[in-house]
Amino acid sequence: MTENVESSGAPSVRESVERIVGGTLSSAKLAGACIERIDSTEDEIAAWAYLDRDAVRAGANALDELRRRGRPTGQLHGIPVGVKDNIDTADMPTERGSSIYRGRRPETNAAVVERLREAGALVMGKTVCTELAWMEPAATRNPHDLSRTPGGSSSGSAAAVAAGHVPLSIGSQTGGSVIRPASYCGIYGFKPSSGIVSRRGVFETSPTLDQVGVFGNDLGDVALLADVLGGYDAADPQSYLAPRPRMLEGWLAEPPVEPDFVWIDMPYASRYSTAAVDGSDELLDALGEHAERISSPQSFAALIECHKVIYEYEIYRCLADEREHHADELGATTRQGLDAAARRSEAEYREALDVRSAAIEWFGQFFHDYDAIVTPSALGEAPPVEAGTGDPVCCVIWTLCGLPCISLPLLAGESDLPIGVQLVGAPGADHRLLRTARWLLNHLRE
Questions:
Q1: Is the pLDDT of residue 179 over 80?
Q2: Which residues have CB under 8 Å from 19's CB, separation 6+?
Q3: Active site residues per annotation
Q4: Are strands 291-295 and 418-424 parallel, antiparallel or unpaired?
Q5: Which long-range contacts (CB under 8 A, 24 or more apart) does 140-143 make?
Q6: Which residues pair with 215 in a beta bridge?
Q7: Element (H or E) spanning 49, and its range?
Q8: Residue 75 pLDDT more than 90?
Q9: Which of 103, 102, 80, 107 is nearest to 91 (CA)?
Q10: Which of 189, 190, 113 is CA-nearest to residue 431?
């Protein structure tokens, strides 16, 4: 396992907000430092789809002026945040990683962008995503090794945080597009339970599976960002009208008893890299009596196929306009994916939805005995760019069931590149999962 289990030593976002509000740090200075780091590495990393430096400076100055005038400040006041390019921004292009939407300017902001600005965050710009947030790789490179992928589809969001361009960013996950890039880029990634964060204004590829997630270099900061983004939205059919878990409170809380973890021998375990296996075994040894190891239920293999059926059936319909009117502008990987998706039948889709519902109910009972599943975030370290954005298989069951997931940058691969450890929690108990994650990080330091 790697030695560094917390942040890089830079001030946390919470500390920066306190200093901005207290007048000892300006948003303009913070944004200027981010621009300097972007300018020093962006030509190699290519994390940004859109960045207007003058607009960023003007926005930071405006936030500083609000503070100087004694106006209310927010939970993220003055903090630069990157936003994935499949998320609508009224004052910036949202091109969805596709030439089809080049120059597209939405009329309204996505719900998560509204919440960012309500909290005083500075929307730094739009981070690169893969074509239509699906499989066709983007130009973004992994900051740890430019010959490697940062993962997809939230390529730029993960790379921008890992490169120090911004302290926080927003992505989305339909398969493994938050947890896997976080693993490859050696940062924290968090996908809250389905329904906590509104998807209004996020480009839809699967109404059943699409979820919003966040990235950061400090898990407490990630929890704060998730708190800011959460809230009911009647425009999102998965959003629920009930109190949300308080993420940061969960992160800061001490568990009433030491948590219980479970390692599940997954049906794809033979595909883990040697380093992922060795690092996971070392982690389980460190957990000792706090971790139980069990075999996966036979149904888990079927759940992987269930996710594939639902995703393909729905994305084929979500991309109807693109495939019917812009097929010549789609990448080869996207066209191949759509050809395969066209063969999914209504009957197998309905059956897959039923299987998903049963799995969600099963997991609701499963977590009565455990605080978290511990499992790799990815099969291994980031593959070379020519191999694509990586395999999401380590994430798809949890995404299918809408479970909260965290990637912790704890392991290193054969080339000394990051591999994340994933914690999966009970649906709607995201605060408990964050509390458990902090306990784990503290336990590993002892």
A1: yes
A2: 11, 25
A3: 84, 153, 177
A4: unpaired
A5: 140/45, 140/46, 140/47, 141/44, 141/45, 141/46, 141/385, 142/184, 142/185, 142/382, 142/417, 143/41, 143/45, 143/185
A6: 169, 189
A7: strand 48-50
A8: yes
A9: 107
A10: 190
The Cα–Cα gap between 229 and 118 comes to: 10
Q: Which residue has the tokens 């929307």?
A: 123
For 202-273, where are the alpha helices, taking DSSP H only? 219-229, 247-252
Specify the residue for token string 């975030």: 377
What is the edge-to-edge ordering of all strands in the sheet holding 168-173? 48-50, 122-127, 80-84, 168-173, 211-216, 188-191, 405-412, 418-424, 372-376, 261-265, 291-295
CATH class of the domain at 13-294+365-445: alpha beta
Distances (CA, A) of 171 to 20, 160, 214, 352, 428: 26, 11, 6, 26, 20
Between the alpha carbon of residue 296 and those of residues 299, 301, 330, the distances in Å are 8, 9, 38
Under DSSP, the state recorded for 207 is T
Beta strand 122-127 pairing with 48-50: antiparallel
The pair of structure tokens assigned to 331 is: 């990448």
Question: Residue 387 gets which letter from DSSP?
Answer: G
pLDDT tens string 255-288 = 999 999 999 999 999 999 999 999 999 999 999 9
Quickly tell me which residue has 């293999």 as its tokens: 301
Q: Domain residues of the chain, as ranges?
A: 13-294+365-445
Q: What is the pLDDT of residues 183-219, one digit of tens each?
A: 999 999 999 999 999 999 999 999 999 999 999 999 9
Distance CA 329, CA 69 (A): 50
User: Which residue type does 385 have?
Assistant: V
